[in-house]
């Protein structure tokens, strides 16, 4: 796989990497003939970001033997690559199968050439299957509006609640339940936006609670991309979605899990095992990873002696749409799928509904 | 050792350094009688203590407890910091930098707590301007006295002096200097910023064609190339191809000054000893130099000609 970023889009790509870096540790890369998909999932698996870069985003995009590639690299060194993005004049990304490195080749101002070779892991990427159209609530606005609203919240606020009404919507800091053994917050913040501030405002009365840091990260990205952000959501417990399109060559989807019921939230440290009880249908989106272990893709290291098979894994083609059926009859609008296996479920914070697994689509 | 407001005169014998030096200083002073009457061997004055702090901070690489050797001569002051016989940094404060500079002896050299000295120089805070400074030294075994003043508030500091050890002589010029480049400091800083600082070593290659910096670590490798004709170089004089590996822990204090320097000269002699010379333009437009020597890792010493 080799591709060259179009010069005009280097900044957008750098912002993409920076945005992904704020969320997760690994960047899952899927290279197809007509596009490259970058994804990440945060450690508590309540935020999932996916960026689709279409052919038009690149000056050149080629796959060896037309073989699709799926692998993951660490985001931290990636962020370092694009720290000084304004000096980059040409950027080539290459999967070097011989050296087993993912290579960033940057041609910068003053003839400076930078070469980064990062280790990668062949892995079935995490993915989400979602249907924006099934969300009854939809908002469209310039990201700045929302960014200004949420910038009022102190950085110690972890979650905010979005309450929507007919004429206005309100963000407020989500207060910890005292039964969780933690003191209620001393500072509560609330900010209201008028429906007129939005380009499109089709919402009912809903309260959803989601994490603030990730929400800020996605708004920050949308702001730098200079495109309106579309927010879709359903109700508490169902994931909220934000999406952005950039001239048909770039799409970004951001999925944030929402709290199931703010009043009946379990303590963050209570590591409730998903195996203890099957999730009810209204907890849909929700983590039931144990049910899916059979479809778990295997994780392969790209190490010389393991001679990983790079062909399609048997699980790759399994239909992702089958996943909703696992989580109950009321099929959720979003499912976050993960290739990392059911063994990580114990790490999940139980604040949120988790997420059934299925292999990446595409 | 204190930066409080104790009087200059009360601060000498007690805070003086090693036992040997104390003994010596009493014999030295016995003929001159009262301590207070003793002449200062060295006195200097500068109107802006921040200039000194700025230059010297280029040598600071430890939070506290860092020691430095101060050499006083008629030409100026030289501060030297060393690390594990492989690293040396020098800051020169030429006497033109000072509004007054009197030195009655030939050469004096002693060790002081450098971190404390920097704290003393910065006692009115980094935002304070027009802090005037006087430095006095009575002679062997006496503390180094600082008198800082800002808007009528004065601070007296006494830093005890210790016997200095023999400084390493890297004898950089003892071997042919084969490669030499001069760059604007921000460009060189950018190059070093790209490196993966989680690695232990960095490799520097200078050849007639290019300058290359690289590191390799667990997560991958990183390499930055500057072609010889790039405009980042003010001068590029490289005669042979040299590749040497240096400990990043020793490189990092040597390039700290890049953030305050205007230009930097990087030189390699034929045994791979690396020298940085940073040119710092002070607030009063005077130029000062801070230079560093970093020794390469052993294994590369023999094959640096490949």
UniProtKB/TrEMBL annotation, chain A:
Domain of life: Eukaryota
Protein name: Cell cycle checkpoint control protein RAD9A
GO cellular component, one term: checkpoint clamp complex
Lineage, top ranks: Eukaryota, Amoebozoa, Evosea, Variosea, Cavosteliida
Biased composition (Low complexity): 268-284, 304-338
Family per record: Belongs to the rad9 family.
Keyword Plastid: no
Subcellular location, record wording: Nucleus
Species for this entry: Planoprotostelium fungivorum
Keywords assigned by UniProt, alphabetized: DNA damage, Exonuclease, Hydrolase, Nuclease, Nucleus, Phosphoprotein
InterPro entries on file: DNA_clamp_sf, Rad9, Rad9/Ddc1
Automatic annotation (TrEMBL), chain B:
Main location: nucleus
Region annotated Disordered, chain positions: 1-34
Location within or outside the cell: Nucleus
Any GO BP: DNA damage checkpoint signaling
CDD domains: PCNA
GO CC, alphabetical: checkpoint clamp complex
Keywords: DNA damage, DNA repair, Nucleus
SUPFAM superfamilies associated with the record: DNA clamp
Classification via Pfam families: Rad1 (PF02144)
Homology family: Belongs to the rad1 family.
The protein's name in its UniProt record: Cell cycle checkpoint protein RAD1
Organism: Planoprotostelium fungivorum
């Amino acid at each position: 796989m080799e591709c060259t970023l179009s010069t005009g889009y280097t900044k957008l790509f750098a912002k993409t990497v920076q945005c992904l870096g704020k969320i997760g540790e690994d960047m899952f890369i899927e290279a197809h003939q007509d596009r490259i998909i970058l994804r990440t999932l945060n450690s508590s698996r309540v935020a999932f970001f996916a960026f689709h870069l279409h052919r038009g985003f690149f000056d050149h995009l080629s796959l060896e033997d037309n073989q699709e590639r799926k692998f993951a690299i660490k985001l931290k060194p990636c962020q370092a690559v694009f720290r000084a993005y304004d000096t980059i004049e040409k950027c080539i990304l290459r999967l070097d199968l011989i050296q087993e490195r993912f290579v960033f080749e940057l041609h910068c101002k003053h003839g400076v050439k930078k070469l980064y070779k990062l280790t990668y892991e062949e892995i079935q990427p995490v993915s989400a299957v979602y249907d924006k159209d099934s969300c009854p609530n939809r908002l469209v606005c310039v990201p700045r509006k929302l960014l200004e609203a949420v910038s009022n919240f102190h950085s110690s606020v972890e979650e905010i609640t979005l309450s929507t009404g007919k004429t206005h919507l309100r963000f407020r800091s989500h207060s910890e339940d005292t039964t969780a053994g933690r003191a209620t917050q001393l500072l509560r913040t609330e900010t209201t936006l008028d429906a007129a501030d939005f380009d499109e405002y089709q919402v009912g009365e809903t309260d959803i609670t989601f994490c603030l840091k990730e929400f800020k990260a996605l708004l920050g990205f949308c702001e730098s991309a200079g495109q309106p952000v579309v927010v879709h959501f359903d109700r508490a417990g169902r994931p909220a979605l934000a999406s952005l399109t950039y001239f048909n060559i770039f799409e970004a989807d951001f999925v944030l899990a929402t709290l199931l019921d703010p009043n009946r939230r379990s303590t963050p440290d209570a590591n409730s095992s998903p195996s203890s009880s099957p999730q009810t249908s209204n907890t849909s989106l929700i983590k039931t990873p144990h049910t899916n272990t059979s479809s778990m893709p295997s994780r392969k290291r790209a190490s010389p002696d393991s001679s990983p098979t790079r062909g399609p894994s048997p699980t790759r083609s399994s239909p992702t749409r089958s996943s909703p059926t696992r989580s109950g009859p009321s099929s959720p609008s979003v499912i976050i799928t993960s290739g990392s296996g059911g063994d990580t479920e114990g790490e999940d914070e139980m604040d949120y509904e988790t997420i059934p697994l299925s292999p990446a689509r595409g | 050792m204190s930066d409080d407001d104790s009087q200059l005169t009360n601060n000498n014998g007690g805070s003086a350094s090693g036992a040997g030096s104390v003994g010596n200083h009493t014999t030295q002073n016995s003929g001159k009688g009262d301590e207070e009457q003793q002449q200062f061997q060295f006195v200097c004055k500068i109107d802006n203590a921040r200039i000194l702090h700025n230059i010297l901070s280029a040598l600071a690489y430890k939070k506290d407890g860092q020691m430095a050797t101060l050499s006083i001569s008629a030409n100026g002051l030289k501060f030297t910091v060393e690390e594990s016989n492989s690293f040396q940094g020098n800051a020169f404060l030429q006497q033109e930098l000072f509004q007054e500079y009197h030195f009655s002896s030939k050469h004096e050299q002693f060790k002081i707590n450098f971190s404390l000295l920097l704290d003393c120089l910065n006692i009115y805070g980094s935002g304070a301007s027009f802090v005037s400074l006087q430095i006095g030294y009575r002679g062997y075994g006496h503390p180094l006295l600082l008198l800082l003043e800002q808007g009528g508030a004065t601070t007296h500091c006494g830093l005890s002096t210790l016997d200095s050890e023999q400084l390493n002589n890297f004898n950089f010029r003892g071997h042919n200097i084969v490669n030499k480049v001069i760059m604007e400091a921000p460009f060189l800083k950018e190059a070093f910023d790209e490196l993966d600082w989680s690695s232990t070593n960095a490799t520097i290659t200078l050849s007639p064609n290019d300058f290359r910096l690289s590191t390799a670590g667990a997560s991958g490798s990183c390499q930055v190339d500057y072609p010889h004709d790039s405009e980042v170089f003010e001068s590029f004089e490289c005669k042979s191809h040299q590749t040497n590996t240096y400990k990043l822990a020793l490189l990092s204090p040597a390039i700290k000054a890049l953030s305050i320097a205007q230009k930097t000269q990087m030189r390699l002699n034929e045994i791979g000893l690396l020298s940085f010379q940073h040119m710092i333009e002070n607030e009063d437009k005077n130029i000062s130099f801070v230079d560093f020597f970093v020794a390469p890792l052993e294994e590369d010493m023999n094959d640096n000609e490949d």
